[in-house]
Amino acid sequence: PSEVAQVEARKGLLGRILENLARTGGAGGMVEPVLIDITTPGYEQLIVDVIRETAAMGMAVIVAHGASIPLAGTPGVLRVMVTASTNTRAARVAQAESVDPDRARKLVADSDAARADYFHRFYHLERELPTNYDLVVNTDVLTVEQAQAAVLAIALT
After folding, report:
1. What does the DSSP 8-state code read for residue 31?
2. How much is the pLDDT for 26?
3. Is 133 within the bounds of a domain?
4. CA–CA separation, 61 vs 52, rounded Å?
5. How many separate domains does the chain show?
6. 80-83/135-138 β-pairing
7. What is the mean pLDDT, run by run of 10 residues, along the chain of 157 residues?
């Protein structure tokens, strides 16, 4: 029994999750949907654990779940916020989703509200701030290529 516990501990959280998904997959390797109460502290801790374990593997880009918050102060991690004004983001959404400008502004506002709610529920932040990041890239001003170059220049130093 102690050997099994040691093997399980070495696999890591992410490995155990993937192994469990592979083992419980339905027909054709499809995973059956599982309802999870995402408001439970256990689920919140699972998200944080996966974020930290993914970052610990190195050379990772984590784009969701407010990863900048649990990774604050982690050596070797560059926390980047890519942002733009509401008008710029709405124009991009309108083009990408083929919707009218009013609908695009509503989608951006809804997305912003959902993000703020997530940060509040998961990390108890009243407001997301630029200081939650190591680098803030404003794509109102910078092109995608310039933003990429700025992030890479800092990440590779």
Report:
1. B
2. 46
3. yes
4. 12
5. 1
6. parallel
7. 47 55 49 54 85 90 90 94 94 95 96 92 92 94 92 91
Alpha helices in the chain (DSSP H): 2-11, 13-23, 41-57, 86-97, 101-123, 144-155
Q: What is the CATH number of the domain that holds 134?
A: 3.40.50.300
Contact 48, 12 (CB under 8 A): no
Side chain identity at 67, as an amino acid letter?
A
Alpha-carbon distance 22 to 110, whole Å? 35
* Residue 80 β-bridge partners: 135
**3-class SS of residue 142:** coil
Q: Are 33 and 24 in contact (CB under 8 A)?
A: no
pTM listed for this prediction: 0.71
Q: Which residue segment(s) compose the domain that 39 sits in?
A: 35-155
Question: What is the Cα–Cα distance from 78 to 157, expressed in whole angstroms?
Answer: 11
